[in-house]
Amino acid sequence: MRVVAVFSPKGGVGKTSAAVNVAHRAALERRRVLLWDLDPQGAATFYLRVAPRLDGGSRLLVRGGGDITGRILGTDYEYLDVLPSDVALRTLDLALDKAKGSRRRLSKVADVLMGEYDLVVIDCAPSLGLVSENLFRAADLLLVPVIPAPLSVRTLDQLDDALHEGGLEVTTRYFFSLVDGRRQLHRELMEQVMSERDDVLRTVIPEDPDIELMGIERAPVAAFAPTSAAAAAYAELWMELQESLR
Amino acid sequence: MPAPVALTLPVGTTLVGLTRQLDEDLGLVPGPEASIGHTWYDTFDWRLYDAGLVLEHEHVDAAPPAPAAFLRLRRLGTSAPVVEVALDQVSHRVDALPDRRLVEQLTGPAGNRALVAVASSAGRTRVHRLVDGESKTVVRVIVSDATATARAERGPGAHLLPSLVVVPVRGHDAEFEGTVARLRRMLAADAGPDPMVVAARAAGLEPGVDPSRFAVAVPAEASAAEAIRLLLSRLLRIMVVNEPGVRADLDIEFLHDFRVAVRRARSIVAAAKGVLPEERRRWMADELRWLGTETTPVRDLDVTLEELEGDDPDLDPWRGELGPVLDDLAERRAVGLVELVAALDTDRYHRFVAEARRFLSSDWGKAPVAADVFVHKRLRRAHKAVLELGHAAVTPEEWHEVRKAAKRLRYLLEGFRALLPAEDTAAAVSSLKRFQEVLGAMQDSVVHVELARAAAETLVARGATPAQHQAAGALIEQSLARGRQAYARCGERFERFSTDSSTRRFTRLWTVAPDPTPDPEPAAAPHPDDAAAADDGAS
């Protein structure tokens, strides 16, 4: 089983879309996939037509153990299950803070899922704190979307620093999201970052109306627009991601 | 989570009617119709089926770049995969499959056999969904309608009944159980055989029945001629069904089974003196001897290579230097295979198969002699020959003659098993196998030494290193030592085979004979080929 945490300290960068579409894409290949929605906003849960309710909330995740598997739900897509979000997860940081071994609690939850799934994709809330530190320890790979804008690009260095300061060694892969290929600034920033770093994936996710339609269709892009540019981009992202997971 | 439930629908169910029922009566939401195809793989002798496994390659409609073909390993009678991977082409070799889990699961059951397509079907499928208040799927009902693809020689394919699989969705067990119960009531449907079994049967194959199996139900009232006709027809069939695997070199067992069928046929032809028309009998003997000769070089190399490439600890000190010897043997095998395939391409071979078929279905015009009388006499003589040769045997060459006589006895027992007392026959075959193990090991060592010497000569010509020479020498010495060990045990094994109790058991095989009838075999000197019917290559 591989665990991919889709993370960014910034919100609105295409994190949830990436998590849902990558998970769906892997499920199309008949990998057993769990999408774990840890963002209390519950957008990934919503996209998959599941009610955002996790009986037990934060305490369940902190306690860990087999109870968690009873909360997993199937989706419209064979091979793709979801561990739903809940608004109560907004207090997860506090709950973790009170627990013993607070930095490894979510790793223990992931351990329970071992054998049931080939891939766990975690949609994380946009913040740096105890929850994210837990995720950095639980994940085999951090997948970080970045908008090609000056402020957003700064998150690469911020995240590097946070991982370094915490002594955390987790494979990190960045990719550009919400890209408008017509804009010179986007093109130049991407070229510069890609030339300076070797942890940036070549796949670029475009700013695309089909991705926005996910909220209307309540489905991954490939389910309602299988031949769209956005579906192709997420397919490419998944292919490239597999190389990094090997 | 509960396992998916497959239901077989009553005769007369149509896909259109079923779809309407599901949607109107159960309130299911239909998905788009899609094409679907399955090809099922197993070894030629159904080893996966015997292990309770089904390996199926599924082709589906998929928008690129989504994969359109998957290889799934599942347990017989279930639909949940043990392992499933996206895969376009299925390799014949298990160890060449691209997924480690598949290789691990299949290596034990498949052994050294190749994967071959045993059945296939093509059709349409549609997923019907039961949904909740959020329009999210809570149960899937997959309906498929397919036609099994027949092999060319067996006529058109057979239409399979529509099948229905109810698939649970995690977290919705109650909805699943309710749907299964309603479908059972509504459609009077219940679990049926695995779709692979249905497709294989539609294609004229019976899963679990090894096409090389030499078990012929000779009727108790059969004449000797009828029995021999049945046995030779079966053996010819075994040769023919194994021939494509020999030509394609899928695995070494195709040639082994082909060759054993030839050898068994030779023994039966040799024993059929006085039953078959003599001119045709000699013709068959000559052609089968030729085929035996043509198959010997490759089979000898297969046995030798299998031993050298196995995990024999005695070879470990030399394994690093044996590469050139193995390469030379593999090259010889490749050349031998080309020659063998050329022999199978000759008019002589095609004529043999065609004429043998004609001969075996023609009227032989002989007075009927009961098959049991025939086989009792042959068994008594064959057993006597083994005992006489065994008591007199001293040299390896003499023990080799004992081996051939023992094989002739065993082939008679196996061929006419249906006419003999089951328990004594099984025990007799078993004691012969134990005896033949030692005799076979002695003969195999002779073959290994010959081939290793030939390879060593090639190494000299090619300028091998001293260490490689030493390894080849050690190999020859080891084979000689094994031959000596086997030779030393021949006498002791023969004593065990020829005890009074063993002899009494054999005697019982022919003392339950019905009223005596004239001997079908005239007292005549044996044809030189008859004595050699159990050929002398590797087993």
Structure report:
The complex is a heterodimer of chains A (246) and B (539). Chain A has 246 residues and is an alpha/beta fold. Chain A is 44% helix and 17% strand. Chain A has twelve helices and eight strands. An eight-stranded mixed sheet of chain A has the order 3-4-2-5-1-6-7-8, with helices on both faces. The longest helix of chain A has 17 residues, at 229-245. The radius of gyration of chain A is 17 Å and the shape is globular. The mean pLDDT of chain A is 89. Chain B is α+β, with helices and mostly antiparallel strands. In chain B, 55% of the residues lie in helices and 14% in strands. Chain B is built from 16 helices and nine strands. In chain B, strands 1, 2, 3, 4, 5, 6, 7, 8 and 9 form a nine-stranded antiparallel sheet that branches. In chain B, helix 7 (252-271) packs antiparallel against helix 8 and helix 9 packs across helix 13. The radius of gyration of chain B is 29 Å and the shape is globular. At the A-B interface, strand 3 and helix 12 of A face strand 5 and strand 7 of B.
